[in-house]
Amino acid sequence: MNPPRPGDAWIRPHARLGVALVVVAVALVVSFARRPGDFAGYILVGDLVLHGQDIYAAAPPGLSTWPPFFALVCVPLALLARWSLVGARVAWLLLNAAALVAVLALVTHLVARGPGDARPSARVPALSSAAALVPLLLSARYVSSNFEHLQVNVLIFLLSLIGLALIGARREALGGLALGAAAALKVMPALFVLLLVWRRRWRAAGWTVLAAVGLSLSPGVVFGWDRLVTYARSWLAVLRVGWSVGKMNQSVYAMWDRSLGHGIVPFTVRGFNDLAPSHDLAVGIASALSLAAVAALVLWSFRPRGARDPRAELIEWSVVFLVASLFGTVAWKAYLVVLLLPNALLIDAWRSSDLDAATRKGALIFALAAFALGVLTTDEIIGSAAAGRLEMGSIVTLSALVVLAGLLWLRRRIGAAESVR
């Protein structure tokens, strides 16, 4: 028998873990490949483009809610579905799985090295390490929702992270192109332009705006400019109508609409999905005041602006990801896949030796408190009836706001510590 090599003690358990993760991933792909999810909408919109039909008027009401540029991305998916619908779903799920692996790799690299260092390093934790797997566990409720409903959020998150990482490494043109592409596909990443302007990253902001506008106008080459104008108006009309504010919608707006607009006392009503927005003025005021309060806390916690700790910039990114996800009129649970980055930062702060004990303990408390609240919406743990009641009470929104509070607190602690030094 050959003697064990020095690395075997580390390799064997991690290899077993890797095999287990592959088995779980295959099982999830097989399970979800038979569900239509949002992918059915992507296929429909792609088919409408191929047949020259109106991507908004010809679709069932409320189904086509994406900007015109997204419709062009749906065309290859529709072509693949003509060959095999299940095969197209499997390919989509595998693409999302690969994107999730890339997100985990990028997040662990950024947290270990900071946003300004793009070089590979042995100091970057492996994907089988606690630095990658613990944030994945804390965010699993939202990652699994993306796969369950065959959504696009992991891919948008990856594209946004790539753009931010390139901008952090002073590659503004490429970074702006990636971030602008993400904003053209889904508006939420456009909020990063405000952060770039606030940090005086003028070139990066300019490239991002240029890419977002250029790609948003590019469908005019395919559809014609008159039809593109019609599509833009139809898309804005869809946004004005809004989405259901039932239990699936965990935006801050939906939270206030359920309580102020519809008079639902939190946690007292069984969960249901179909609830039309009330369009009550009080809901808009409460949402605006909530956003203003968060903005004031952000400006307070982000001082000093030129913090040298590389975690400071990553915290700022995380705050923008969460604000963009929570403060629109809709926030499905899958939107909160962006929690992978803030959870990684909170866990890294807890494990860091360069932070004081109170900061480390506080970071862990915020992460675990948010995780505990999020787990309460898992049907398999507390039952669908109880989970639905908690979702109607916006428990997922509260969980994400706990993480947001933890990030602002941590950013302020880092800035204060640097001021003392």
Report on the architecture of this protein.
There is one protein chain. The protein has helices at 8-32, 39-50, 68-83, 85-113, 130-138, 140-148, 153-168, 172-185, 192-198, 202-217, 219-223, 225-241, 252-261, 281-301, 310-326, 340-351, 357-375, 379-382, 384-392, 395-420. Helices cover 70% and strands 0% of the residues. The chain has 20 helices and no strands. The model is unreliable at 1-14 (pLDDT under 50). It has 421 residues and is mainly α. The protein has a domain at 244-421.
Salient structural properties:
421 residues, mainly alpha, 70% helix, disordered N terminus
Quick take:
It contains 20 helices and no strands. It has helices at 8-32, 39-50, 68-83, 85-113, 130-138, 140-148, 153-168, 172-185, 192-198, 202-217, 219-223, 225-241, 252-261, 281-301, 310-326, 340-351, 357-375, 379-382, 384-392, 395-420. The N and C termini lie far apart (57 Å).
Low-confidence stretches: 1-14
For the biggest sheet, the summary is: none
Task: Return the structural class.
Answer: mainly alpha
Number of strands: 0
| Tally of DSSP helical segments | 20
**Apparent shape:** globular
The whole-angstrom Rg is 22 Å
Mean pLDDT: 87
Task: Report helical residue fraction.
Answer: 55-70%
> Distance N terminus to C terminus?
57 Å
From N to C, what is the helix and strand string? HHHHHHHHHHHHHHHHHHHH
